[in-house]
Task: structure prediction
Amino acid sequence: MLPYILLNQVVSPDFLESAARNPGHLRAPALLFLFGAAVTLAISIAAYPVLRQSSHRLALCSLALGVANFPLQVVEGGMVLSMLSLGQQYAGAGAADRAMLQVVAAAAFGARRWAHYTQLFTVVSWIFVLYAALWRAGLIPRVLAVVGLVTCALQITGVPLQALLGYPVVMEIAVPLGPAYAGLGLWLIVKGFSERREAALDRAVPLRA
Result:
């Protein structure tokens, strides 16, 4: 949430002046995007050997989405830094150049917006598959898995899918994913992962490859 909290303070359709005044609010999110994408990819790689023992398809899908998310997040971070460059050029430009930069800025704002929704669709799909794979492997309680799957579905349909289809986003139904995902992380930290691995795999029902 932190990169988007920072971005919301400066990014709007008329972001040029605010971007130039607050460069840190754009540089920091770009770095955090890269870090988050790397963590997602690392989780996918680390979990693959365990998850594939109960469901090769889910494990492979999780890995593929983790890999796909990385370049999409890098693209969004690059667009954020491009918006910063436009703001810096706008601050030192004359009246004629400012008019041209405003047109370019409108296009950059729209491009970053579409990149964001595409990446969001991918990463929440990854979270959905991760919940399904962990449930299939018996590594998380059924209730936690069901809550995670439902909140992921709500987030996908309420935000990125709505936006990509041209409808207004419904942020209210996207909010529950935050505490649900945090709850998954907290449960895994408290209960552990490796110590439950053998027992979970014994209970898991293997799927056909």
